[in-house]
Specification:
The chain has about 180 residues and is mainly α. The protein is built from 11 helices and no strands. Helix 3 packs antiparallel against helix 4 and helix 6 packs antiparallel against helix 7. The radius of gyration is 18 Å and the shape is elongated.
C-alpha cells in the first residue's frame, strides 16, 4: 500500500515522496516536493526543515522551523529551531534554544546530545557540564543504544579536552561496548 501512496491523491503523498528522497540523502529533491505544498501540515514542515538542515541551508531551515513552532509548541519544533540556529553559527542563540528545549523536555536525548556537541566547539573546556548534561541520556532506559554510545563518546571528548585521559578512556570504552 505504501508503494502506491506517493502516486495517489492522498494528503500523505507528498510526505511519502519527501521521506523517500530525504532517506536517500536527496534533501534538495525532498525539499522541492514540500515547498510546492500550498498549506503544509506540521509533519510536512518538520520534514522540510530537516531537509533544509541536511542541505546546509540554515536560513531556510530557521524560517521553516519558526513557522512550525508558530503552528505547534512542541519539542520537535523547538529542536529544529535550535539546530537551525546552531547551523547558522549563532552559538549563543542555539545554546539558549537547546537549554530551553531541555528545561521543557528533560528527557530529550537529541537536545542534550546536540547541546553537548555545541559546547565541545567552544573555547573552554566544559567537561563537568557536559557530563551532567549527558548523564540522563546514559541512564535513560528509553534512550537508544546509538544515543547512549554517542553520549559516552561526547563525554570522553570533553574529558580529553580537560586532560583527564583516564576518565576519557573509560568513557570511550563504554561507548565502544554499547556500539559493538
Amino acid at each position: 500500500i505504501l508503494m502506491n501512496l506517493d502516486e495517489s491523491e492522498s494528503p500523505y503523498a507528498s510526505l511519502v515522496k519527501a521521506s523517500r528522497e530525504l532517506a536517500a540523502t536527496q534533501a534538495q529533491k525532498a525539499a522541492g516536493f514540500l515547498v510546492a505544498r500550498p498549506a503544509p501540515s506540521p509533519e510536512e514542515l518538520a520534514l522540510l526543515a530537516e531537509a533544509q538542515l541536511v542541505e546546509g541551508n540554515a536560513g531556510k531551515a530557521l524560517a521553516t522551523s519558526k513557522k512550525l513552532l508558530a503552528m505547534e509548541k512542541s519539542a520537535r519544533a523547538s529542536y529544529l529551531v535550535a539546530r537551525a540556529r546552531a547551523l547558522a553559527g549563532d552559538r549563543s542563540a542555539a545554546t539558549r534554544a537547546f537549554e530551553e528545549l531541555i528545561a521543557a523536555n528533560p528527557r530529550h536525548a537529541g537536545g542534550r546530545l546536540s547541546l553537548a556537541s555545541l559546547l565541545l566547539t567552544g573555547e573552554r573546556s566544559e567537561a563537568s557540564r557536559i557530563e551532567q548534561l549527558l548523564l540522563p541520556v546514559t541512564q535513560d532506559t528509553r534512550a537508544s543504544r546509538g544515543e547512549k554510545a554517542r553520549a559516552f563518546a561526547l563525554v570522553g571528548r570533553a574529558q580529553l579536552r580537560s586532560r583527564n585521559e583516564k576518565a576519557a578512556a573509560a568513557s570511550f570504552d563504554k561507548a565502544k561496548a554499547i556500539d559493538s
